[in-house]
Specification:
Helix-turn-helix domain-containing protein; transcription regulation; elongated; 2 domains; HTH-type_TetR-like_transc_reg; mainly alpha; 0% strand; Arc Repressor Mutant, subunit A
């Protein structure tokens, strides 16, 4: 019985330690450190023992993966909090706006985090899965998608939106898209993708969205 009561506390402590390390990593990146910061510097910044980051994450790459996952969780949480009106098409565009705004809150941090994910590793990470989940959340019940394309849309659209968003962010990281152009670039790409699946009543709106962007 006592062990059962202690388990939630141990889990809370584990989660707290992970968040402390991730917060410290963000502070290092915000101060201009690259993703090559040392684990010793990270432990010192977090105020924990040298082994703690290794014990909880295993590697620096895993820490960057965790920072990416936490960012995506924040995007999803804000989307749920805002509960934007409209159909799946409106929700995708709202998710893009929310996601870009969060990226721009700490651009140096997020450029370092997302940029580090492009490095090949022996084990593929969960970034694609997490990204797909974000856009699946936005698509919801696929309202606004034509009945004849819905099955196909359910199979491919979340992935394609994730690819579009990641592509825009990659150009932003490379300096080929400025901060003020990131949202517009995503909206054009997403609207173009959605145009092939949208119900006839929404296609005119999407074309206007592309023109306005």
């Amino acid at each position: 019985m006592a062990g059962t009561e202690r388990q939630p506390l141990r889990e809370r402590n584990r989660q707290l330690a992970r968040e402390v390390v991730l917060d410290a990593a963000e502070r290092l990146l915000e101060r201009g450190e690259t993703a090559d910061f040392s684990m010793r510097a990270l432990a010192a910044e977090a105020g924990v023992g040298f082994a703690t980051p290794f014990n909880h994450f295993g590697s620096k790459n895993a820490i960057m993966q965790a920072l990416s996952a936490r960012l995506i969780q924040r995007m999803a949480a804000q989307f749920r909090d805002e509960a934007p009106a409209g159909d799946a098409i409106d929700h995708v565009l709202a998710m893009g706006r929310i996601s870009v705004a969060l990226l721009l809150e700490k651009p140096d941090v997020h450029k370092a985090v997302v940029g580090s994910l492009g490095i090949a590793t022996s084990e593929p990470g969960p970034v694609r899965q997490n990204s797909r989940g974000l856009w699946s959340l936005a698509l919801g019940d696929f309202a606004g998608i034509a009945v004849e394309t819905k099955t196909f849309a359910e199979a491919v659209l979340a992935d394609q939106l994730a690819f579009n968003f990641r592509g825009c962010v990659s150009f932003w990281i490379a300096g080929e898209l400025q901060d003020e152009d990131l949202d517009s670039a995503f909206r054009i790409g997403a609207s173009t993708l959605l145009l092939g699946f949208a119900s006839p009543s929404r296609r005119t709106d999407l074309i206007e969205q592309i023109k306005r962007s």
